[in-house]
Amino acid sequence: MSDATHIDSLNEAQVRELAKRLVAEVQFKQATIEKLTHENAVLKRLKFAAQSERFDAEQRSLLEETLEADLQAVSEEIEALQPPKDSPQRQQPKRQALPASLPRREIRHEPESTTCACGCQMKRIGEDVAEKLDYVPGVFSVERHIRGKWACAKCERIVQAPVAPHIIDKGIPTAGLIAQVLVAKYADHLPLYRQEGIFGRAGLAIPRSTLAQWVGSAGVQLQPLVEAMRQELLTRSVLHADETPVQMLDPGAGKTHRAYLWSYCTSGYEPERLVVFDFAESRAGRHAAQFLQGAGGAWRGTLVCDDYSGYKALFAQGVTEGGCLAHARRKFHELWANHKSTLAQQALELFARLYEIEREVGELTADERLRIRQAKAKPVADALHAWLTAQRQKVPPGSATAKAIDYSLGRWPALVRYIGDGNLPADNNWVENQIRPIALGRNNWLFAGSLRAGKRAAAVMSLVHSARLNGHEPHAYLKDVMERLPTQPASRITELLPHRWRPATA
């Protein structure tokens, strides 16, 4: 049914409602375009002003590559919001030919049938060749995509295989090369200026500005996959949360300020594992609330976390608090390590008994874990609580020992909640272990000049680290996903999530 026929079939009220919806949609798109256009102008100003800022050479290099990636990402988002144009597209600038010295691999694309509709056998009259730059560690090669042209002499019909879709439309890099750049930057902690040198030694020095544009484009294309992963995460009843500081460049002030990378992941007891990172400019609790607002409404499960006050608003709104036994234990370990406190040593012995039981139940089912915890851990926890209460009466207020005891007593219901639920872990170490590798490279990939750059890094790292958690090699995962993503129906995008992904050749 055509749009005109469809509209004719509507009554007056439905037409008004449709018009109202279309106007709202246009206004939303226009507002988004204006916002992105403003962001684009700001980025361009920062790009040309970066040389005058008070950064050292490494900081300036990281800032410049971030701005290039942001500019490319904003440009693609604006283009996606623009209505389709009837006029011919502006001709793409001619690229410099790839070096003839690089090895080439021909990939031929021919029509499924070369028999014309009239019954004649078509003749090959030529071909179109597109070259894509590929890379395996240390070696560049060129993929020559050859699309033969076939024509029917009788009815002058030409047939040719369609251009295969790519993650970066009309770009020269293969999905494998883009995956290499992303994994090197966000998993191996190699900023683009270092990758530029590595590629130069392999025979082709790709400018870091070009690498940054690839990163920006890939970030835009991968974002729907990361959002689908977040929605999948919010279907779980138990989540871990943690946050770690990162330095963010402030181009206007010529210095850095503290931002935060928040981490959310499934329980280590689940066979399918996901970790999603979220970059924010502060440690305010509203960032956690915004992340946990899913498509079906606010998430209402058990959140295992430390005692940071930013999570308190969530607990007031219906989220259940799962405490971290390791944080409570750590307070006493610091007393023992620094002062050889005999009281702290006694506390550590009780904590050790609780952890011995956790090692025993780690591989069991939730029901078996609950049964053993109730039989063995509950008596130990009760003894620990009684001991803490008694000792608190003997130590002076304000002392380090009093603070350690108060931490445990003040959070006691949350600390022992795991004993009554076989699906809950005893501590938050699982998410802390996921965020620990991030700390190794944060000066290289989050030493960034924009919120957009931080969120792009968080998105790519979510995919890379979730792939690793599910036993996949990150480069192989990203390469395959970016080859399939351009043709993957939106309704089936969850098939590409790390815990569900299967190689296309399988």
Automatic annotation (TrEMBL):
Domain of life of the native organism: Bacteria
Domain Transposase IS66 C-terminal, first and last residues per copy: 462-499
Region span, Disordered: 80-110
Protein name: IS66 family transposase
InterPro entries: IS66_C, Transposase-related, Transposase_IS66_central, Transposase_TnpC_homeodom, Znf_dom_IS66
Pfam family membership, one: zf-IS66
Positions of the Transposase IS66 central domain: 170-455
Ranges of residues in domain Transposase TnpC homeodomain: 36-107
Residue intervals of the Transposase IS66 zinc-finger binding domain: 114-156
